[in-house]
Amino acid sequence: MALDKPYLDVPGTTIFDADQARKGYHLNQFCMSLMKAEQRERFKANPRAVLDEWPMTEAQKQAVLARDLNRCIAEGGNIYFLAKLGSTLGKSFQQMAGSMTGMTEEEYRDMMVKGGRSPEGNRYLGEDGTAQPHRQPQGSSPNTSF
Hints:
146 residues, Protocatechuate 4,5-dioxygenase, Chain A, 0% strand
């Protein structure tokens, strides 16, 4: 019997739970390997060759190669592990977060300085009657690579 997961009804949100952790295990371990300078240099020199050393799915590898963090998350990536990928590529966490929202780094920073996004439209199904009646599809939008 599958577990009831009412938290999956948060529109536009991928929850990193045990299922996502299992799905993204090798992707996240690859990201952890980027803590070593030698691995970072190898990856920057030949990304595909390094990714092929890991038992990730092709979809996970393509998400990394496309630098698409939203796709990486949909494929089981955890943002705290993915931050190592961004750092390897010379990106700040703020730049990464901006890319995930379709904003520039400056637009993202300005939004956060003003208090962040409005919760309207981002509530779970039935909360205050404002949530969308279906779960939004997870995935990437254009221009989400960093």
